[in-house]
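go over whats below:
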Amino acid sequence: MCANLTIDDEGKRVVNTNGKEIGVIDEVGTGVAYVEPGAEMSESITSRLHRDRDVADGMERYHLDEDHIDEITDDEVRLQRF
């Protein structure tokens, strides 16, 4: 399934297939969300996402393409199994 991201998705929790929060959507662009990683973001997930190198103040964030998303609800963005 491919979900369509909108600016309304900014601030939503991003959860893995087990329902664990792995980050929060910081910003939405065309077909991509920029995710600030949380403590539960594993290396297996970060290795499949692209790190945003233009982040100020040493903060990391990752590109999350729409094709990695299973479902978008009112509160969260659920990832597909990678």
Notes: The mean pLDDT is 84. The longest strand covers residues 21-29. The radius of gyration is 11 Å. DSSP finds one helix and seven strands in the chain.
